[in-house]
Amino acid sequence: MGLANWLTTLRILLIPVFVTLLVYRKAGWALVVFCAASLTDMLDGYIARKRGTQTRLGAFLDPVADKLLITSAFITLTYLKVIPFWITAVVVSRDLILSAGVIVIHVAGGTVHPTPSWLGKASTLFQMGTVLSAMLAYYFKTLVFLPKTATWITALFTVGSGLQYLVQGLKQLNPPDHDSADQAHRANLEHDRLR
Fold first, then answer.
1. Structural domains present in the chain
2. DSSP string spanning the chain?
3. Which of 38, 102, 114, 156 is deepest in the core (most CB within 10 A)?
C-alpha cells in the first residue's frame, strides 16, 4: 500500500478523533484535525498522480473516506446546532441515494466505474468549506457572514452532482445493446441484398 493510500487511511482514522473533540467542545483541536484530514484529501490524489501509483484500492478508499468525513462532520455539527438540519439532510440523502444506486447496478449485473466529475469534486470542496466556515463562525466568531452563503452554494452543487451521477448510473444500468444493433444492421444488409 503506497503513501497515497496511507494518507487516505489516516483521513479515515482522524474521523472519530474529530467527532470526539467536537462533542467534548474542544473546537480548536477539532478544527485542526478537520483541516489536517482535508489536507490529506488533497495530498493523496496529488501524490498518486505524481508518482503514477493510482490503484483500484485508492479509487475505492478515497471517495469512501471523503463521504465518511463529510457525513460525520455534518451530522455532528447539526446535533450541536452549528449547521442547519436541512443542508445535512441534502448532503446525506444524496449519498444514500447514490449508494442505493450502486447496489441496484451491481444487483442488475452492471459494473460501477467511479469517475469523479468536476461537479462532484466541487461539491466535496464546498461541503468541506461549509463545515470549516460554520465552525469558524460559531466557535470563533470569524467570517460570520460566510456560512449562510456557503450552505446554499453547497446545496446547489450537491444536488447538481447527485443528478449528474444518477444520469451516469442510468447509462451504466441500460447500456446500448451492441449485439442487437449489429443483428439489426446485418438483417438490413441481407434485406437490401435480396431486393
1. 3-194 (1.20.120.1760)
2. --HHHHHHHHHHHHHHHHHHHHHTT-HHHHHHHHHHHHHHHHHHHHHHHHHT---HHHHHHHHHHHHHHHHHHHHHHHHTTSS-HHHHHHHHHHHHHHHHHHHHHHHTT--------HHHHHHHHHHHHHHHHHHHHHHH--STTHHHHHHHHHHHHHHHHHHHHHHHHHHHHS---HHHHHHHHHHHHHHHHH-
3. 38
Distances (CA, A) of 8 to 40, 48, 57, 107, 112: 7, 11, 10, 28, 21
Q: Which three cell numbers stand for residue 46?
A: 496529488
- pLDDT tens, residue by residue, 22-48: 999 999 999 999 999 999 988 877 787
Q: What is the mean pLDDT of the chain?
A: 84
Sign of CA dihedral 175, 104, 9, 41: positive
Residue 140 neighbours by CB under 8 Å, 6+ apart: 27
Q: Which of left, alpha, beta for 147 (phi over 0: left; psi -120 to 50: alpha)? A: alpha
- Note the pLDDT tens digit of each residue in 102-133: 787 777 776 666 567 788 889 999 999 999 99
